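Example record

One chain of 468 residues, shown exactly as stored in the release files.
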Amino acid sequence: MTYRGRHRRRTKGRILRATLSGTALALTAAATIITTSQAAGSDNPGPLTKLTSSSEMNKLQLHENLVAEPTLDTLESGMGGTVGVDGVLKSANHPMRNKADCDATESAALPVEPTATRAYCWDSGDATTQKWLPQSVTTSGDADNDGKWGSDRVILAGWTHNDHKAGEPAADKGLAKVAFIDANDPKNLKYRWVLLVAPLSGGKDFGAVRSHIGGMVWYQDKLIVTAKNGADHDNALFVFDMNRILRADVNSTEVGKVSGGWSARGYQYVMPAMGSYNLTGGACDASDDNARPCFASVSLDRTSTPDSLVANEWFSSGGSEPARVWRYYYSTASDRTGLLGSNADDVVNADEAYETEAVGLQGVLSHKPGGASEADWYTAYAPGSRDRHGTLWRQNESAAKAAQCGSGGTSYACWGQHTESLSYWQETGELWTLTEWAANKDNKWKPPVIPERMLYAVPLSAVDDSVQ
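Predicted structure tokens for this chain:
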């Protein structure tokens, strides 16, 4: 294990840039080649187009804001000290079901080509709930190149409260939580929930983080998640310290300091935000591909030098706006583990950006094969229809390719149904993702619910073989 211990953050009066809302912080099957020449019309997005103008790159610029360390120390001390990742895993109380034990409707969400080599479905209550949506994944394979956090293999899955579910209490809207999955035994995965929060009042209280976590990366000792809260699109990313998981000791519907201790709306563990990155030019615009982009998902690229965080924006699969994909290098400073590389003004500049004609992107991954001169960008497309499989494109500046499947090998829709973010576990060579849906046959959020939520892995080599 390479990275351990808490680094000392710079204390330059920086604060967590966010919006207060009351007492809560609104952080807020065979495959064949598909090349541009073979695919017809708009079915193929074609090669990536590199963005080089300063005006385009400036739209991706971030400012780093860190919470003062005494604030975090005060909260940690008040809650009785930290709980390690291993402590959360030891208390895991939700079993995951192996593929053989999943319902047929759940397994139907798995990819057609290439097929998943590992697949799991959630505990029964989480498999069918309409209140929460599974939307992002990262692993201890991102955290460290040995694939472990200490002695543990861990998968993290980020879930966002469903704001579109009618009748839900206002206090629940936009809540974000992470499933800490004990993956030490591949045949016996189990998990425990950790609620994302943010310190208030100098660390004497905390409030709920309210954010759409469409993507997240656990790198070294930090967890970076995408941020979006209603109309507040200023914050782009939030940062959490994996060494600061805290225990709530009061079981109530409240979030924060309560009579007798600390409450996390029924969850036993919380992880407080220690920083954020906001777009320097102001709020993003999710309806305009010429505006500052809203972060839809993020992932880690260990094949860049230095390691980097890559991101994508999302536009409706029914639209035609070309989406951007881009990267930020991580800091190489020993006192800034897991943080992005910033200058003396705490500004983080994008180091590379492209435009893709692929629409409806739910996830992105960048990976440079050994000996290659440029990275391949894997872009996961999700169609609007619930019961259709998506497409996983492999793009670079020369071409775009994807697997073909179906009768006569004429379909590009070979990937999972409504897959979300992507994460590459370098040590095992696996590409991980998860599917989101749990709706009824009419694509509505009402009973009877048909679960189609799967967590699965496909060897990246199999993805590449399927398009060669």
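Notes: DSSP finds seven helices and 34 strands in the chain.
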